[in-house]
Amino acid sequence: MSTPDNAPEGLTEARMRFIYTLRSRGVTDARVLSAMERIDRRDFVTGIFSDRAYEDMPLPIACGQTISQPSVVALMTEALQVGPRDKVLEVGTGSGYQAAILSQLARRVYTVERHRPLAREAQKLFDKLGLTNITCMISDGSYGLPDLTPFDRIIVTAAAEDPPGPLLAQLRVGGIMVVPVGQSDTVQTLIRVVRTETGYDYEELRAVRFVPLVEGLGH
Ligand code: SAH
């Protein structure tokens, strides 16, 4: 496929359409759009679905999990309001795509995954792409990473019935957490939590659908 004359350098027509779709779905933050221009979703989708990497839909990855829909990745990243000095925790590495987007906006990204093969593949990909500010860890992310607390931002990319208590506790005052909340087999609500001096403010953002946050380690 040829690159049109007015395309940002190296961006194929398919990737330009991808960015256009994100804009048409309401993504306006220039920093988020530019991060999504720089990170190629195709690197994160392997096998028979790689041809569909630029479509705005979730796709299957290994271990029965999914890479999230790009417009949802973009809107969650926007809602997180990540700054260049932020230390971010992501729960649910999956393919590593969301972490890679965050790596473009934050100082440091810690991402945790309960399935060892997914974590290994994601870390390999981060190394290959030179995304040196991401660290991938294998653990049950519902407990966060107590040794690295507090976090400026926390993003959970699997649905919990309630925002996990340990994660709320690991958010710094003034910090923001974005988490899908609800039963796993129904439509869930994306929640933004802001930690204040005295407690937590909750705001409902939109309906989403994620795989469940599962306890313990996977295979
Ligand atoms: N952010 C991912 C999408 C992940 S799908 C991406 O960009 O591709 C959700 C992921 O959360 C799955 O890989 C699943 O294994 C993981 N997960 C579910 N419960 C978890 C838990 N308690 N701790 C860590 N990871 C968990």
Automatic annotation (TrEMBL):
GO terms classed as biological process: methylation; protein repair
Reactions this protein catalyses: [protein]-L-isoaspartate + S-adenosyl-L-methionine = [protein]-L-isoaspartate alpha-methyl ester + S-adenosyl-L-homocysteine
Domain of life of the native organism: Bacteria
Location, primary (coarse class): cytoplasm
Protein EC: 2.1.1.77
Example of a GO cellular component annotation carried by this entry: cytoplasm
Sorted UniProt keywords: Cytoplasm, Methyltransferase, S-adenosyl-L-methionine, Transferase
Catalytic center residues: 68
One Pfam family matching this protein: PCMT
UniProt xrefs under SUPFAM superfamilies: S-adenosyl-L-methionine-dependent methyltransferases
Top EC group: transferase
The keyword Protease appears for this protein: no
InterPro entries to which the protein is assigned, alphabetical: PCMT, SAM-dependent_MTases_sf
Localization: Cytoplasm
Molecular function via GO: protein-L-isoaspartate (D-aspartate) O-methyltransferase activity
Role description: Catalyzes the methyl esterification of L-isoaspartyl residues in peptides and proteins that result from spontaneous decomposition of normal L-aspartyl and L-asparaginyl residues. It plays a role in the repair and/or degradation of damaged proteins.
Similarity remark: Belongs to the methyltransferase superfamily. L-isoaspartyl/D-aspartyl protein methyltransferase family.
UniProt protein name: Protein-L-isoaspartate O-methyltransferase
